[in-house]
């Protein structure tokens, strides 16, 4: 220990160079670990907003050297109160680029690559490159997308255990005013985003007729202008929440409406808030949640401590309350679950495959519809789709799956008998026998 | 974990070479759930579904409703459905593509149906929504107006409402608003056949 030259990050050394009794399972303390984190670990930060700025700073100061950041937004003047990497002269520039530049200026030795684009624009190989993905996002859609991508890399062995080398861990942070959460997602081990999507409260949606007839609040007036008046005036033109002119138009219409009904409180920022579903952000909440996320990232990567298990909530509305909840995986999750392993001959037709599922002891599915990579191979209903897919029934499944030796197929149908029949959707891991390059066929007997 | 990252690089290369497939985007959970909804559809004869983008795009589809009773008998009304990737966390977006004189549907095609907005729950499905839409035609409701004038007429003078609906469906003006003649209406009356026969022809 005494011979180890001290690094810039003395406090980090205390965590990474010394053994302890609260460490993670494969923790091997020492300078090699510290250096390996610098050299080999690549972290992707998704989002360069309130959380993203904090995350980049925290991760850079936690000894990570190879960071990437992706964000599709440009800096707005209202970001400046909390997105501390940005200055007034940066307004209009891409967040990812400025954030990367600022952190590199302040923390020497850190290399941050910025990506000014949508997350969907990147090929999947881009994501597979990272050791871990840290999310600082504000939407369910984006989280769901990244989760699907990361879980898409996951493969299971014949015993339904995740193959370690295919696991792509994620750390997810989120804030809403004085509340926030930090969670870790280790696909195949902890619940994935989709396993617990019910945690998100549904969005408040006002009845259209209330908007049209009996508005009572400023938000009603704004939604009227946004959802009803816009279509009436701009026939066919779609409303773009990121176009300032469109927002301005909605704001003026909402004002007129509010005046008509004697309603107070329509402001430009409320208009933005309602239309873009913006949640007020508090700098301190972002800092707390990001710190928790950065720490979990370090823990997952180094093993220097056991990780959060697995969902932390923070509430600073009145006093302060934090709690860790261990959510459980949905074994049948369509996104992260193993699915049912099925071995097939390449000659088997789709019709035979469907029959086989009916007799399969783990499935007992009747009235089966089959989909593969977005292609509907067979649909039981409605009649128009049944007719369009019927000709596939006599084609070998292997050919319909464009001769991919092993892949995921989703099926749905009915299980149970008589009154207890219920519909269900299942994930299958189809493996074709006797194809080169498939390694787990030999041991996949237990399917 | 760290050791894993070091060896991962090589393993991935090996895996990709052996498999030769790289990684392909998986279907979103929303698409899969919708696939289930669609494959279990159980529609009445009065509702027909179609997929303008073919069998592999279920996220955008259309429903034609031909009410077999009530004010709108003889009409055919087209609705477009747009389903998001986080369905069923979010309800489908539904618009009426046929200009219709209706208290709960405005002239831009916005539909006031509670389960499409404030009362949507993830346990509901596409079937429920379609039945909900069908219900709007058999029992238009003046208490949730989107077309204020139509609702007032329905409430105060159902006979006049009936005749306004006919006027609109046959093509003409109701007040200041012009409605296109519905093509479904052409053979409904000109053919001179009974309603039963007409449905036999259509389906």
UniProtKB/TrEMBL annotation, chain A:
Pathway: Protein modification; protein neddylation. It catalyses: ATP + [NEDD8 protein] + [E1 NEDD8-activating enzyme]-L-cysteine = AMP + diphosphate + [E1 NEDD8-activating enzyme]-S-[NEDD8 protein]-yl-L-cysteine. One of its GO terms (cellular component) is nucleus. The active site is at residue 209. One of its GO terms (biological process) is protein neddylation. Keywords: ATP-binding, Ligase, Nucleotide-binding, Ubl conjugation pathway. Its EC number is 6.2.1.64. Residues 342-433 form the E2 binding domain. GO terms for molecular function: ATP binding; NEDD8 activating enzyme activity. Belongs to the ubiquitin-activating E1 family. UBA3 subfamily. Catalytic subunit of the dimeric E1 enzyme, which activates NEDD8. This is NEDD8-activating enzyme E1 catalytic subunit. It comes from Fraxinus pennsylvanica.
TrEMBL record, chain B:
The active site is at residue 112. Residues 33-168 form the UBC core domain. Keywords: ATP-binding, Nucleotide-binding, Transferase, Ubl conjugation pathway. Gene3D superfamilies: Ubiquitin Conjugating Enzyme. Pathway: Protein modification; protein neddylation. It comes from the Eukaryota. Belongs to the ubiquitin-conjugating enzyme family. This is UBC core domain-containing protein.
């Amino acid at each position: 220990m005494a011979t180890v030259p001290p690094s810039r990050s003395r406090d980090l050394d205390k965590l990474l160079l010394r053994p302890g009794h609260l460490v993670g399972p494969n923790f091997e303390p020492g300078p090699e670990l510290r250096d390996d984190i610098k050299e080999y670990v690549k972290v992707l930060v998704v989002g360069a907003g309130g959380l993203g700025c904090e995350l980049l700073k925290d991760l850079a100061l936690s000894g990570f050297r190879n960071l990437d950041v992706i964000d599709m937004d440009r800096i707005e003047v209202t970001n400046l109160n909390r997105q501390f990497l940005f200055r007034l002269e940066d307004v209009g520039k891409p967040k990812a680029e400025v954030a990367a530049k600022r952190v590199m200026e302040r923390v020497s030795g850190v290399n941050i690559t910025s990506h000014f684009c949508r997350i969907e624009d990147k090929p999947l190989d881009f994501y597979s490159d990272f050791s871990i993905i840290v999310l600082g996002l504000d939407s369910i859609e984006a989280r769901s997308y990244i989760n699907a991508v990361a879980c898409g890399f996951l493969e299971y062995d014949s015993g339904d255990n995740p193959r370690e080398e295919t696991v792509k861990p994620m750390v997810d942070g989120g804030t809403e005013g004085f509340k926030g959460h930090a969670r870790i997602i280790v696909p195949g081990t902890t619940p994935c985003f989709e396993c617990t999507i019910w945690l998100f409260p549904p969005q408040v949606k006002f009845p259209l007729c209330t908007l049209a007839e009996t508005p009572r609040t400023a938000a009603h007036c704004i939604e009227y202008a946004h959802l009803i008046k816009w279509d009436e005036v701009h026939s066919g033109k779609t409303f773009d929440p990121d176009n300032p002119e469109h927002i301005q138009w909605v704001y003026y219409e909402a004002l007129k409406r509010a005046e008509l009904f004697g309603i107070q409180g329509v402001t430009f920022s409320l208009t933005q808030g309602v239309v873009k579903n913006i949640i007020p952000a508090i700098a301190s909440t972002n800092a707390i949640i990001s710190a928790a996320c950065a720490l979990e990232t370090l823990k997952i990567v180094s093993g220097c401590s056991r990780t959060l298990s697995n969902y932390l909530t923070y509430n600073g509305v009145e006093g302060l309350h934090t709690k860790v909840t261990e959510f459980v995986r949905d074994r049948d999750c369509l996104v992260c679950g193993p699915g049912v392993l099925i071995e097939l001959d390449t000659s088997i037709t789709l019709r035979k495959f469907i029959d086989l599922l009916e007799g399969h002891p783990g499935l007992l599915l009747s009235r089966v519809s089959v989909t593969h990579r977005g292609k509907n191979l067979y649909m039981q209903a409605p009649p128009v789709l049944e007719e369009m897919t019927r000709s596939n029934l006599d084609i070998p499944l292997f050919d319909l799956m464009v001769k991919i030796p092993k892949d995921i197929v989703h099926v749905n149908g009915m299980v149970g008998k008589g009154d207890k029949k219920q519909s269900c959707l299942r994930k299958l891991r189809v493996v074709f026998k006797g194809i080169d390059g498939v390694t787990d066929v030999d041991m996949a007997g237990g399917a | 974990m760290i050791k894993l990252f070091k060896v991962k690089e090589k393993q991935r290369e090996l895996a990709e070479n052996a498999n030769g497939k790289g990684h392909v985007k998986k279907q979103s959970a929303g698409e899969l759930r919708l696939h289930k909804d669609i494959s279990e559809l159980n529609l009445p004869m009065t509702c027909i579904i179609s997929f303008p983008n073919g069998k592999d795009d279920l996220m955008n589809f259309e429903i034609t409703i031909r009410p077999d009773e009530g004010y709108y008998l003889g009409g055919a009304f087209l609705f477009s459905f747009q389903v998001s990737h986080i369905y069923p966390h979010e309800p489908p977006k539904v618009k009426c593509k046929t200009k219709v004189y209706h208290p709960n549907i405005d002239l831009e095609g916005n539909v006031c149906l509670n389960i499409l907005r404030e009362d949507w729950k993830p346990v509901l499905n596409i079937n429920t929504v379609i039945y909900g839409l069908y219900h709007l035609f058999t029992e238009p409701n003046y208490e949730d107006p989107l077309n204020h004038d139509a609702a007032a007429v329905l409430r105060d003078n159902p006979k006049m409402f009936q005749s306004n609906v006919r006027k609109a469906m046959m093509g003409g003006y109701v007040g200041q608003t012009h409605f296109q003649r519905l093509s479904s209406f052409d053979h409904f009356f000109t053919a001179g056949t009974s309603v039963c026969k007409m449905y036999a022809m259509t389906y």
